[in-house]
Amino acid sequence: MEEFDGAEAKAIPARPLGELRRKGIYLLPNLFTTGVLFCGFFAIVQAMNGRFETAAIAVYVALVLDGMDGRVARWTNTQSEFGAQYDSIADMVAFGAAPALVAYTWVLKDLGTAGWIGAFIFCAATAIRLARFNTNTGIVDKRFFQGLPCPAGAAVMAGLIWVLVDFGLRPDQWYVIAGVTWVTAVFVGATMVSNIPFYSFKEVNWKQRVPLWVILVAVLVLSVVASQPSLVLFALFLAYSLSGYVMWAMGRRPQTVLPEE
After folding, report:
1. Can you give the pLDDT of all 261 residues of the chain as single tens digits?
2. Distance between CA atoms of residues 84 and 137, nearest Å
3. What Å distances lie between residue 156 and 63, 149, 163, 235, 258, CA to CA?
4. Which SS3 state, helix, strand or coil, does residue 256 take?
5. For residues 76 and 143, what is the distance between their CA atoms, to the nearest angstrom?
6. Which helix H or strand E contains 145, and what residues bound it?
7. What is the Cα–Cα distance from 56 to 50, expressed in whole angstroms?
8. How far is the C-alpha of 155 from the C-alpha of 51, rounded, in Å?
9. Helix %, strand %, coil % for the chain, to 5?
10. C-alpha closest to that of 61 among 26, 34, 35
């Protein structure tokens, strides 16, 4: 053990402790990432207290915050390796552990062993998806995601719970609800670790000028979402989770970009 520690010390040059302390971290983007982590933890706590609708909404709030932290870091030029690693850990809690535990506490626990296996498949798939995304950055075609993004997968899982709770549950049909939830968890987990391409929307230029009618369409979309948020949001993310299969059936394949030597 001592020989191993000595080899590590030779391979990695030591830095003065004062230099490591002065380096610090960027506050603004990491505040958003902390918000993602908090929402995931809050969702788990609310599920333990039987407030499943609040737990599902917390996952959606985490999704919004997760979409902001990276953009804020780029806009303010505050990207860092610490921020990237912290973001992955927060995503694992908010989009992996939280939806899986909320679903298990809600109805999957009634299935016994099969219930926690379904929840674990979803949680493990999220971890694999995040690890693959981190290692494939700069290699795959940026226009497409390789597999379903974990925030979208979490939105499908939380959206299903939100919809069924919002519309009321019939106790005599718990086995149907548990079965649908289990199938959804396994389907989303398998889709996240698959090679199915999903459009990333990174080619959209948000800074260009658009016709005035686009604003009207945006207002109408917001009105539709506000009319029945649980159903509309679940339908949108479910449609996105199926869009990759449609692209795959049409023969659309993302290109692999080889790193420069």
Report:
1. 444 344 444 444 555 545 545 566 777 788 999 999 999 999 999 999 999 999 999 999 999 999 887 777 777 777 788 888 899 999 999 999 999 999 999 999 999 999 999 999 999 999 999 999 888 766 666 778 888 999 999 999 999 999 999 887 765 677 889 999 999 999 999 999 998 989 887 766 666 777 878 788 888 888 888 889 999 999 999 999 999 898 888 876 655 443 333
2. 12
3. 12, 11, 10, 8, 32
4. strand
5. 23
6. strand 144-146
7. 12
8. 17
9. 75, 5, 25
10. 35
Q: What amino acid is encoded at 67 in this protein? A: G
Instruction: Walk me through the domains of the chain, giving residue ranges and CATH numbers.
Output: 26-249 (1.20.120.1760)
Neighbours of 213 (CB within 10 A): 8
Helix axes 229-249, 174-192, angle to 10 degrees: 50
Report the C-alpha gap between 26 and 17 in whole angstroms: 19
Name 146's Cβ contacts closer than 8 Å, sequence gap at least 6: 132, 133, 136, 140, 195, 197, 254
Give the burial string for 112-122 (b: 16+ CB within 10 Å, else e): eeebbebbebb
Strand (E) or helix (H) holding 131? helix 113-135
